[in-house]
């Protein structure tokens, strides 16, 4: 199979995915969660059936018009409200108002993040990622070569963007668990790419007469069973976690599923063809 | 057949099985007791429920935040938390101006929040509305019984407070000094004598419980710095526990499927890898217990990734062994060269990931750190189990000559 020769097809597929994600972000924005933006999440178990409009009616009394109201729980008797940062007394009053309307109301979760903290978390994560990328580039350059390092990082970036696009398109809120998921995807993707590159490194010596395309194509085929088996076993665990796991873990598992698929795809269809393209400029035959 | 190798292999397999049994069920021999791993691991608030609060000290005019004040504030909060009676609270400085409070398993989140989040300012106000003392002047407040067995609160003032109070009690002798917590008057005792010793009592309390409560409020109000809440997370224990229980079940089912897949695809080596994988999970969890680490959701992410990498290491090795077998090498030679060839890929992939994990650990905070820790532990252990344990067991198996058909090795 000609993985390298059809690279335009693969690049196009990834490009469409990522660009549609970016367009979606530009048009409607990311659904940035309170972890990054600041705000409050109130999660009540109302204990009986209710309408979102009733909830909004109560919130309107507190001058909270611009907020998100979502039903949750197995019986749809829970409500999750996302809104701005509230004062202690506001929170107490809102809770009391719910209690007055639905006496069995219980608060089962409350999260509140100051906008400054949210911004700090985002910046710290970004700085850490940039430095981690530099560290990885240095190591891969030492063990392989610079071109392997850069293309591996591009593949990682690709996977992160795919997951981000996916979240943007589906309007899933981006919160702290999302960062953990992105980090996991990055770890997975780099691991996956290195194994393919290791084979290319080996075959460069064994097949020194063959063309780069041939070397890379056979390296990919030789590692394909491994790529499939590893992705499959990891996906089994995460898919079950998605289906059976608790409410708090669902979005996280979903991000991992998308990311691992992207990670496997990018090692084969993005990183390796990119490396061939770049490598050929060295010999002046692009 | 080679009994010595078979015996060795059986001993290893039995040991892993026994370790697995003990980590799930615990062990009790006389006085000596090993608790199940599940009970030994601290779970983060996102997994088991509880209250998390991040407080930040405010710089007010003429009031700088010093290290001393922050340490004092931590102590005050520790005191407040102790009043709540939480089993294993975490009260820690975070950076220069922040204090992190974690109260695992707290059920009454409202109460916990109101006590920790009490950013109250304590003021003693004279009849002319002048502020006599503030919380900064009070060193300690305790509920005590007076000479006639009546409940009261005794106050100890610091040197500054002592002077101010002596002056004020002289000025307002016979009048009332009101004690405000925020905008609420919590007591308004009459000054009966000039107090110069830096100690005072508040009388007129209905019972010792009320006295205790007032003392606590005063201590709580005596924060050396103003703290504001920057982040609160209160997860009801039912939600956390439910989520954890379901996720644990899901994890178990997922793991069993992976083990089955490994056997189906890689046959005998797959079975060996499964034992190595189980050993890997036991070691990682034991390190967790040993480090007293707290497992959070991002930590779980790190674990899943490292399990994936542990499986991957075995898959890489077995694929290589299969290739060598197809090239016509003997079983022993295939295993040796398969491991040798796989080693470089495993090493480079893991070291690269380890570098990233190390950077995330040093630069990251909170959730990112948790991820980095579980990932790093997982990578190191997975390299050990895949390269050392799997290899050793496979060699014993081959040397035992009980399974010589290369079909059993997936070829």
TrEMBL record, chain A:
Q: Which domain of life is it from?
A: Bacteria
Q: Does the keyword Protein transport apply?
A: yes
**Would the keyword Cytoplasm be found if you checked this record's keyword annotation?**
no
| Membrane-topology annotation of the record | Multi-pass membrane protein
Q: What is its main location?
A: membrane
One example GO MF annotation: protein-transporting ATPase activity
Protein export membrane protein SecD/SecF C-terminal domain location, by residue? 97-280
Sorted alphabetically, the Gene Ontology BP terms of this entry are: intracellular protein transmembrane transport; protein targeting; protein transport by the Sec complex
Q: Which SUPFAM superfamilies does the record cross-reference, listed alphabetically?
A: Multidrug efflux transporter AcrB transmembrane domain
One Pfam match, by short name?
Answer: SecD_SecF_C
Q: Which family does it belong to?
A: Belongs to the SecD/SecF family. SecF subfamily.
Could you identify this protein by its name?
Protein-export membrane protein SecF
Gene name of the record: secDF_2
Automatic annotation (TrEMBL), chain B:
Concerning its family, UniProt says: Belongs to the SecD/SecF family. SecD subfamily.
Q: Which residues form the Protein translocase subunit SecDF P1 domain?
A: 71-127
Q: Which UniProt keywords are listed?
A: Cell membrane, Membrane, Protein transport, Translocation, Transmembrane, Transmembrane helix, Transport
Task: Summarize subunit and interaction data from the UniProt record for this chain.
Answer: Forms a complex with SecF. Part of the essential Sec protein translocation apparatus which comprises SecA, SecYEG and auxiliary proteins SecDF. Other proteins may also be involved.
Summarizing the function annotation, the protein's role is:
Part of the Sec protein translocase complex. Interacts with the SecYEG preprotein conducting channel. SecDF uses the proton motive force (PMF) to complete protein translocation after the ATP-dependent function of SecA.
Q: Where is the SecDF P1 head subdomain domain positioned along the sequence?
A: 128-225
According to its UniProt entry, this protein's organism is Koleobacter methoxysyntrophicus
One GO cellular component term of this record is: plasma membrane
Where is this protein found?
Cell membrane
Stretches that traverse the bilayer:
250-268, 275-295, 301-321, 342-364, 370-394
Protein's recorded name? Protein translocase subunit SecD
Is Transport a UniProt keyword of this protein? Answer: yes
Q: Which Pfam families match?
A: Sec_GG, SecD_1st, SecD_SecF_C, SecDF_P1_head
Q: How does it sit in the membrane?
A: Multi-pass membrane protein
State any GO BP term from the record.
Answer: protein transport by the Sec complex
Instruction: State the encoding gene.
Output: secDF_1
């Amino acid at each position: 199979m000609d993985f390298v020769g059809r690279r335009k097809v693969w690049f196009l597929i990834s490009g469409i995915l990522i660009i549609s994600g970016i367009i979606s972000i530009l048009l409607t924005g990311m659904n940035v969660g309170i972890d990054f933006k600041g705000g409050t999440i109130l999660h009540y178990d109302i204990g009986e059936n209710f309408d979102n409009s009733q909830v909004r009616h109560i919130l309107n009394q507190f001058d909270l018009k611009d907020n998100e109201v979502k039903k949750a729980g197995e019986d749809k008797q829970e409500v999750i409200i996302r809104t701005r940062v509230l004062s202690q007394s506001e929170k107490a009053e809102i809770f009391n108002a719910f209690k007055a309307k639905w006496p069995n109301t219980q608060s089962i979760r409350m999260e509140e993040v100051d906008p400054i903290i949210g911004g700090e978390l985002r910046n710290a994560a970004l700085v850490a990622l940039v430095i981690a990328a530099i560290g990885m580039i240095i190591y891969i350059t030492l063990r392989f070569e610079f071109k392997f390092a850069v293309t591996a990082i591009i593949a990682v970036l690709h996977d992160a963007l795919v997951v981000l696009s996916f979240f943007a398109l589906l309007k899933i809120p981006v919160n702290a668990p999302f960062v953990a998921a992105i980090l996991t995807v990055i770890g997975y993707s780099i691991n996956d790419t290195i194994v393919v590159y290791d084979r290319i490194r080996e075959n460069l010596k064994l097949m020194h007469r063959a063309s780069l395309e041939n070397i890379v194509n056979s390296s990919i085929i030789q590692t394909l069973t491994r790529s499939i088996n590893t992705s499959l076993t990891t996906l089994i665990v995460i898919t079950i976690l998605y289906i059976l796991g608790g409410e708090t873990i669902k979005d996280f598992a979903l991000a991992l599923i998308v990311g691992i698929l992207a990670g496997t795809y990018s090692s084969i269809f993005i990183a390796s063809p990119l490396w061939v393209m770049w490598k050929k400029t060295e010999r002046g035959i692009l | 057949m080679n009994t010595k190798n078979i015996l060795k292999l059986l001993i290893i397999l039995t040991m892993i099985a026994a370790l697995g049994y003990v980590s799930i069920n615990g062990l009790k021999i006389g006085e000596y007791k090993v608790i199940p791993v599940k009970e030994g691991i601290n779970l983060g608030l996102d997994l088991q429920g509880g209250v998390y609060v991040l407080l930040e000290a405010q710089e007010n005019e003429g009031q700088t935040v010093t290290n001393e004040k922050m340490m004092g504030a931590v102590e005050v909060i520790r005191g407040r938390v102790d009043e709540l009676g939480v089993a294993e609270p975490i009260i820690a400085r975070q950076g220069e101006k922040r204090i992190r409070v974690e109260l695992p398993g707290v059920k009454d989140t409202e109460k916990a929040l109101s006590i920790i989040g009490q950013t109250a300012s304590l003021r003693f106000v004279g009849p002319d509305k002048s502020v006599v003392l503030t919380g900064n002047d009070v060193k300690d407040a305790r509920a005590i019984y007076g000479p006639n067995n009546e409940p009261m609160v005794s106050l100890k003032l610091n040197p500054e407070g002592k002077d101010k109070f002596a002056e004020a009690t002289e000025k307002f002798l016979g009048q009332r000094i009101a004690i405000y917590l925020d905008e609420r008057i919590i007591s308004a005792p009459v000054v009966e004598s000039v107090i110069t010793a830096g100690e005072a009592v508040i009388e007129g309390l209905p019972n010792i419980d009320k006295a205790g409560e007032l003392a606590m409020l005063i201590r709580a109000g005596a924060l050396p710095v103003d703290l504001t809440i920057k982040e609160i997370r209160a997860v009801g224990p039912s939600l956390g526990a439910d989520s954890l229980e379901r996720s644990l079940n899901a994890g178990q089912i997922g793991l069993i499927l992976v083990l089955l897949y490994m056997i189906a695809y890689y046959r005998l080596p797959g079975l060996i890898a499964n034992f190595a994988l189980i050993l890997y999970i036991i070691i990682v969890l034991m390190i967790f217990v040993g480090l007293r680490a707290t497992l959070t959701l991002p930590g779980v992410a790190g674990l899943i990734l490292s399990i994936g990498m542990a499986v991957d290491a075995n898959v890489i090795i077995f694929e290589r062994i299969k290739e060598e077998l197809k090239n016509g090498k003997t079983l022993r030679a295939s295993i040796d060269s398969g491991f040798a060839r796989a080693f470089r890929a495993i090493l480079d992939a893991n070291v690269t990931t380890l570098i990233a994990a190390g950077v995330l650990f040093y630069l990251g905070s909170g959730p990112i750190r948790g991820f980095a820790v579980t990932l790093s532990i997982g990578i190191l252990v997975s390299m050990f189990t895949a390269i050392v344990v799997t290899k050793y067991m496979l060699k014993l198996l081959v040397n035992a000559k009980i399974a010589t058909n290369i079909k059993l090795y997936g070829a």
